[in-house]
Design a protein that fits this description.
The structure is a single chain. The model has no long low-confidence stretch (mean pLDDT 78). By secondary structure, the protein is mainly alpha-helical. It is elongated and about 65 Å long. The protein has two domains: 48 residues, no CATH class; 57 residues. It starts with 16 loop residues before the first helix and ends with a helix. It contains five helices and no strands.
């Protein structure tokens, strides 16, 4: 099996579906054969995302504070006349985002468990 020849040389949106199927050594209507699918699975691994380790709420909160946009807003808030209010707004935003990330991880874990 060739390593998907020619896919990097042309923009992804220019080839026709038939050209893409030929490059991927697949069939438009039937897809891959069972032996081809097994070969690709053993060569490339499963088509799955790796799950990121979820930290505690505090870790998520401080990770959120390290985001470039949040850092820029913190610096701007401190430089402004009402810097304390700006810092409060950033802290509340970071708390909310951290809470959403933790909730999203909990829901994803429950969904994965069935």
């Amino acid at each position: 099996m060739a390593q998907f020849k020619g896919m990097a040389s042309n923009p992804w949106h220019t080839p026709s579906p038939a050209e893409i199927a030929a490059r991927l050594e697949s069939h438009l209507k039937n897809g891959l054969t069972q032996p081809d699918a097994k070969d690709r699975l053993s060569a490339l691994g499963p088509n799955a995302l790796t799950e990121r380790e979820q930290g505690s709420f505090c870790q998520e909160f401080f990770e959120e504070l390290r985001e470039p946009m949040v850092l820029m807003l913190l610096v701007t808030g401190v430089m402004a006349l009402d810097g304390v209010q700006g810092v409060r707004i950033i802290a509340v935003g970071a708390l909310g985002t951290s809470w959403m990330e933790v909730r999203k991880a909990i829901v994803a874990r429950r969904h994965a468990e069935g």
